[in-house]
Amino acid sequence: VQLVESGGGLVQVGDSLRLSCAASGRTLSDYTLGWFRQAPGKEREFVGGLVWNGGNTYYEHYNEDRFTVSRDIAKKTMYLQIHSLKPEDTAVYYCAAALSGHAYDEWGQGTPVTVSS
């Protein structure tokens, strides 16, 4: 599976942003897709994801209901909607794919998000 993220950029505090992760290659029915982020000087952390077959979503505990993961089956695209952006949301956002029961091992190149105050 090949993954390409898009939608990042420079935004203001309080703005909303939707990131996209377009998948190609194998069928996604056996995959779980996830969003991760890595802030400057920090380790990569999990944000949220979904099981492609069925669309069940799950989030990291800090989500604070500001993050929403969704998908468009026809476009083979996963989205991450972020509301009320904060400076601490500044990071490179990555999407990743994992075959069911396996670790994430397919990664996109990332899309940077900078939140300016």
Structure keywords:
single chain; 7-stranded mixed beta sheet; 11 strands; 117 residues; globular; mainly beta
Order of helices and strands: EEEEEEEEEEE
Give the uncertain stretches in residue-range form.
none
Sheet-strand content, in percent, reads over 45%
Q: Give the overall average pLDDT.
A: 95
Number of helices: 0
Total number of β-strand segments?
11
Helical content, roughly? under 10%
Alpha-carbon distance between the two ends: 37 Å
Radius of gyration: 13 Å
- What is the makeup of the main sheet? 7 strands, mixed
Q: What structural class do helix, strand and pairing data support? A: mainly beta
Overall 3D shape: globular
Describe this structure in a few short sentences.
The chain is mainly β and 117 residues long. It contains no helices and eleven strands. It is 0% helix and 55% strand.
